[in-house]
Design brief:
Number of helices: 10
Radius of gyration: 17 Å
Largest sheet: 2 strands, antiparallel
Number of strands: 2
Shape: globular
Strand content: under 5%
Helix content: over 70%
Structural class: mainly alpha
Order of helices and strands: HHHHHHHEHHHE
């Protein structure tokens, strides 16, 4: 019971922060564009890249990562939240990003917000593993949802091999279900190896 109120507070805070559509706002304020008119029409940082190039993309990406990292970093490392109370707090930012009340309960695919959550919990260990896996599989496999699925599978193996913490497995399971749902359109397609561009 002692962690009930802090858990509720940080979960609501994480959802509210995750719901802030930073990529949409960067598109409007910096680029003067609606990024939902580009690419896959999602309100995420990748479409900021398509709409305006690398610098606005980096800004949007860092903001989206921060809204996952900040509530977990504060709750876990500053205010001492621990145990299974971490799980709902860890799910809140990606859920807020996916179901944003600022966008009529719609949102992006939540990869950056979920990545930020792992920064908030483990600082660098799992983020380094997950980023490396995602980059490798994204270069090898299309559509991108399959790269995300394989990266998540690799994260599970890393958690089983190097971490003895069922709470982290709970966080992973929640993220897995949400990210698979968000990438369901990609996962309905057959995966294939990316074709290398021929140099002429």
């Amino acid at each position: 019971m002692t962690q009930l109120l802090p858990t509720l507070f940080w979960t609501l805070f994480g959802f509210a922060l995750g719901a802030l559509p930073f990529s949409v706002w960067v598109g409007k304020l910096v680029l003067g564009k609606d990024i939902r008119q580009f690419g896959d029409k999602n309100p995420g940082a990748t479409n900021v890249l398509r709409a305006g190039g690398p610098l606005p993309f980096v800004l949007a990406l860092m903001l989206d990562i921060s809204k996952g990292a900040l509530p977990l970093g504060l709750a876990v490392h500053i205010f001492g939240v621990e145990g299974w109370s971490i799980v709902p707090i860890a799910l809140a930012p990606p859920l807020g990003h996916t179901f944003s009340p600022f966008l009529n309960w719609r949102g992006g695919k939540a990869i950056a917000a979920a990545f930020g959550v792992w920064i908030g919990i483990t600082i660098w260990t799992m983020p380094l593993i997950s980023l490396s896996l995602l980059v490798v599989f994204s270069l090898l496999i299309t559509p991108s949802g399959w790269a995300v699925l394989l990266a998540l599978t690799g994260m599970l193996l890393a958690l089983l091999l190097w971490f003895d913490d069922p709470v982290l497995l709970g966080v992973w399971a929640g993220h897995f279900l949400l990210l698979v749902w968000n990438h369901r359109a990609d996962l309905a397609k057959r995966p294939s190896l990316r074709q290398r561009k021929k140099i002429t």
